[in-house]
């Protein structure tokens, strides 16, 4: 009796899981690899045309002279930068910009946090919170042009602000807030604070509402006072939001132009001259496009320093 030959058993091929291609079949072709770049191409084109090309042109202009007539344009090296950095008007604009953005940022944070905590408290009912939210957010709803016109009328020597101060006996006669070099910078800083704090308030209110209530309950059980709970619970939890908003506000405020130009135009006597208005006047009032390009590059570098800290903070977060 002969033994039957037994053929070796082979394991059946397992089917690939659903949604996954079989091995050797998921190799993307070069055309498929280019598909994502095809979707991104309109955005990349807009960024290149509207941002990269103008920046490269301005940087190129900053190293040349007589850029209006390209045939007579000559390489000037760092002469335009030296002229800008030694200009007394530029130094005054740099000082005014530093005061303007630092005071505005600190006031935005303080007012935004104060109003956010007021709207987040349990002492106010739902209707009261809704009313206060509408009132507090109103300055953010106006455009810069409307804000400039309103406050120019309010701060006029015969305007409402002087009328109230005279009624209270704080001043004897109308003060020209925007025409006096001693008060013009602080007046536009106040207007910028008034128009910008609602954004901080909304952002910080969202951060406050995201803090777990268990942290406050644990701190209260440990006997922490309201001040200690604010310092040890609220501020540490809001630290990422506060730092991010502060850096963003420094960048935005340093680029403020419309409000200053429509309220004072950089005057009187350069009392409210900012880097933005200084660069604009060089380019479109004095037609010194090469020098204006150098000033614009300096402003760009200062802004990039702030942007670097913002990006690093966001990555750490």
UniProtKB/TrEMBL annotation:
Residues 1-29 are annotated as: Disordered. Pfam families: BPD_transp_1. Gene3D superfamilies: MetI-like (1.10.3720.10). The chain crosses the membrane at residues 37-63, 98-119, 131-154, 184-206, 238-263, 289-311. Keywords: Cell membrane, Membrane, Transmembrane, Transmembrane helix, Transport. It is a multi-pass membrane protein. The keyword Transmembrane applies. Signal peptide: none annotated. Belongs to the binding-protein-dependent transport system permease family. This is Carbohydrate ABC transporter permease. It comes from Streptosporangium vulgare.
